[in-house]
Each structure stands twice: as C-alpha cells, then as structure tokens.
Amino acid sequence: MNYKLPKGSLIVSCQARADNPLHGSVFMAAMALAARDGGAAGIRANGAEDVKAVKAAGLPVIGINKVFSDAYPVYITPNFDSARVLVEAGADIIALDCTPRSRDGEAPEILIRRIRDELGAEVFADISTLEEGIAAEQWGATYISTTLAGYTEYTTKTPGPDLDLVRALAARVKAPIVAEGRYNTPELARAAIDAGAYAVVVGTMITNPREITKVFAKEVLGA
Ligand SMILES: CC(=O)N[C@H](C=O)[C@@H](O)[C@H](O)[C@H](O)COP(=O)(O)O
C-alpha cells in the first residue's frame, strides 16, 4: 500500500486561531515553508484558505475544518461539505473526528467512505481511545491518529502525550498509527516512533511562538 505520508516522518501542524497574532494564511504558508526546510514531510492545516496557502511547501497536506458550535462537541471536519472544500483547496488527506460523539453532519463511518470514494482523498481518523481507533480502521480510515486523546469528555488530559495509546493501537491496528497531541519535545516525538507510531504530528511547540514563549517565561519569571 502506498501512503501519501512517508513512514517514520515528522508532520508539522500549522494552525493559528483568530486570537493568535500569527492568524492568517500568509503566516501559515511561511510556517509551512520553514517546516519543510527543517525536515517536515507533511503539513496539517485548518480551513480551505490555509490549506491552499500551505500547498506552497509542496508537501502532502492534511486538511481539517474546525467548525465550533455550542450544540455539538465534534468540531474537526464534522460533515461532508466541510471535507469537500478542503479537497477543492488542495488537501491530499482529510482529518476528521472519528469519535462516536454527536455532530452536525454524517456519522464518521459514512464520512470516511464518502471522502475516500467521492473525493479520492486519504482519511486521517482523529480518535481518543483504542476502541475508537479499532472502529475507524474497520470503517476504512487510512491513518489512525491519537489527536483527541485527553480532549474528549471521557479521556484524561495528561501533561505529556498519550504514549500508552500509541502502544495499544500499534498492538491491535494494522493501519499506520500517527502520534499527535502534546509531543512537546524531540525526545517525546522519538518515543512515539519507538512505541510503534508510523509518523508524529507536532503543532504548538513548533508553530506557536506565543505558547513557546510562555514555557520560557514561566521558567525565567518563576511564574
Ligand atoms: C485537540 C485539537 O483540537 N487538536 C488540534 C488538531 O488539529 C490542534 O489544535 C493541535 O494543535 C494539533 O493536534 C497538534 O497538537 P499539539 O499542538 O499538542 O502538538
């Protein structure tokens, strides 16, 4: 099987919300170029505009569409239309929330099939537990990623990444496992590969200078 993301690779998530001084596709494109020059093999980006912009780096793009609402807990690519615009913008891979939680859209098993069949894109399943990873593989997801570990109501957010989930998935799932979420040091990223991950996604600690500054400031100021 040929995968768009290479095995053993680092993927960099280039995202900045509206309240972030680096919000905007010009900044995200620059982040993607810097990530590529530093050795990233893929980029994760939010929204059609940013997906289009980060394509400048010439790397495979994992597109997501964050749609926040008070009514539904699922916000990462909750429906088919939110996936379609990403593919139209150039995304090679679509990431979506594959938890069983309620959403303003189709069930994840339907979304996975339609994204593969109708849009011709690989599917990147964002999950939070072993059971969700097993289900997403059965539904046909290309990659299984620990993105949501610690971010669902029924999982615990540990200070570090959930390496145990990577290990558990690697033992039970044949699809490539991606480690994502709080991989905040190079050593932790390496530990993910050693635990059986096919690739690692790093966001905050590479592309969010405000959060990186906070880590330093906390130590320096003792705050
Ligand atoms: C839970 C959720 O919405 N995660 C998002 C998914 O796209 C992003 O906000 C994260 O930055 C990304 O997963 C990378 O993780 P980290 O920034 O910890 O390296």
Automatic annotation (TrEMBL):
<comment type="pathway">
    <text>Amino-sugar metabolism; N-acetylneuraminate degradation; D-fructose 6-phosphate from N-acetylneuraminate: step 3/5.</text>
</comment>
<dbReference type="GO" id="GO:0005829">
    <property type="term" value="C:cytosol"/>
</dbReference>
<keyword id="KW-0119">Carbohydrate metabolism</keyword>
<dbReference type="GO" id="GO:0019262">
    <property type="term" value="P:N-acetylneuraminate catabolic process"/>
</dbReference>
<keyword id="KW-0413">Isomerase</keyword>
<dbReference type="InterPro" id="IPR013785">
    <property type="entry name" value="Aldolase_TIM"/>
</dbReference>
<dbReference type="GO" id="GO:0006053">
    <property type="term" value="P:N-acetylmannosamine catabolic process"/>
</dbReference>
<dbReference type="GO" id="GO:0047465">
    <property type="term" value="F:N-acylglucosamine-6-phosphate 2-epimerase activity"/>
</dbReference>
<dbReference type="GO" id="GO:0005975">
    <property type="term" value="P:carbohydrate metabolic process"/>
</dbReference>
<comment type="similarity">
    <text>Belongs to the NanE family.</text>
</comment>
<dbReference type="InterPro" id="IPR007260">
    <property type="entry name" value="NanE"/>
</dbReference>
<protein>
    <recommendedName>
        <fullName>Putative N-acetylmannosamine-6-phosphate 2-epimerase</fullName>
        <ecNumber>5.1.3.9</ecNumber>
    </recommendedName>
</protein>
<dbReference type="InterPro" id="IPR011060">
    <property type="entry name" value="RibuloseP-bd_barrel"/>
</dbReference>
<comment type="function">
    <text>Converts N-acetylmannosamine-6-phosphate (ManNAc-6-P) to N-acetylglucosamine-6-phosphate (GlcNAc-6-P).</text>
</comment>
<dbReference type="Pfam" id="PF04131">
    <property type="entry name" value="NanE"/>
</dbReference>
